[in-house]
Amino acid sequence: MKLLSKVSVLKNVAIAAVGLFVFGSACAAIGNAGDIDPAVQQLIGSDTESLQVQQKVNWQSGTYGQLISPDSPLIDEIRPFGSQLFDGGFRGLRADGLNSDYRIAPGDQVVLRIWGAIEMEKVLPVDARGNVFIPSIGPVTVQGLNNKAFDNRIRSAVRSVYPENVHVYTQVQGVQPVAVFVTGYVVRPGRYAGTPSDSVIYYLDQAGGIDDNLGSYRVINVLRNGKVIESIDLYDFLLQGAMSRPQFRDGDTLVVAERAASVIVSGDVERSYRYELAKNERVGSELIRLSRMKAGVSHVLLRGDRDGGPLTGYFSLQEFNSQPLQDGDEILLSADKRYDTIVVEVEGSYYGPSRYSLPRDVMLQDFLDAIAVPQHITDTSSISMRRESVAMRQKASLEESLKRLESTYLGASSSTPQEASIRVQEAELINKFIARASKAEPNGRLVVATHDHIANIRLQDGDVITIPEKSDSLLISGEVLVPQSVVFETGKSVRDYIDGAGGFSQHADKSKVLIVRQNGEVRDADDVALKAGDEILVLPEVPTKNLQLATSISQILYQIAIATKVVTDL
User: H or E segment at 470?
Assistant: First the structure.
């Protein structure tokens, strides 16, 4: 391999040429993919990627879209878009009716102040005919006027009688309360009090909100004398903040229509909702406009019923824009794009950037051949890799071992009081051990360098390649009195280093000492010669006389040590 034999030449390789070199050499190296050590082959498996794909795809359904995640909400639990409006406190926010757009109605009271040639201060009611009566002036019609028009009308009436040296001030002091009927598909139909300026949402909230199963958020009619004077779409308010503000009169009726076609949207969205579509909006592009997709969504899975039978389709986002929709359709948005490149991270002793964008089929050796390293300080024989899929498999294997330990020993019965007492002690030990062991996070270390040979495996997105520096030290950790890092001395044995760290602790298992190499390889201390950069890891002894239990826990301890390079206390 070039990295091992031509380090000095690689030092002069231009980092900018990495991408071109890798593209040119990747295809030629694919034939070497099978040249992998058995240990490496066992760890990564040849079907890692296919296993990941099978977990996401339903190959038996006739469509190749991603399935709904187990964490997705159940269909029956998905609420209509807009239902969150009535989780707030609109019913407690009654308006005072005194706004610039308010139009005066019979029963309102207005303040009139006149000074100058004549002095007058009155609170005048608006009578049933829509007039206010001003002494010495007579009736003035003000019904239907807003504040500005009302002020102008009163000034004009006063100056028609007192044309000079007269000043006029007007104010709407209070509005007549109204009662509005709220009916249709609401939770509590009834007659509710408010002011003419209160919003539609205020009255709907008084009635308990719109029925989640039947009510429409897009067709809410305001009836006056049996005629629709306004139709309100709450989606305008939810999406754009626009709200129609009719001025209510006593006896008006709010009618919530039955919900029209609705479509359930889930998958890669910020939140799953049931969206209601108007007649002229029943196409995919409108649904895309309404839903809040996560970044990277590329495909849509559509399930529904048509006259010809069940329909299932898997469309690109562009194809879905023109797809007609019907009531009851289920839409699953999916980030299902396969990129042509992967991103690989490099750490340790090398020249160049820390991340590289590479072709999906690039091989490890080809990539390493394009990385320049410092010639005299880099340990090219101890290269290792961290891979997310390996960490996931290590974690799953550890969890399975802990479940097996728990089910085997915690559920066992006892035949005598003495045995029961022992079982209690063992249960405490097991529970304590499981609690600590379950917190272990495997690092996903993949051993790719053994016996000065680097396996030529295909890189995956997210791989982290470690190129370590040569080390002059050795670490002693685990169950020793003084865990420490010391300078490596040729000829010293494992026991010599342990004695230098204060010897074994009282919890140490002297027969379980591991050597962890810089490349991630873990070996038994009796089966390897120490070298600089190694870590001596002393495992704890299981405090139980139950040989079967001790064996099970010891195996899990060994498993954790390999996956994390950390000893779990008992």
Answer: none
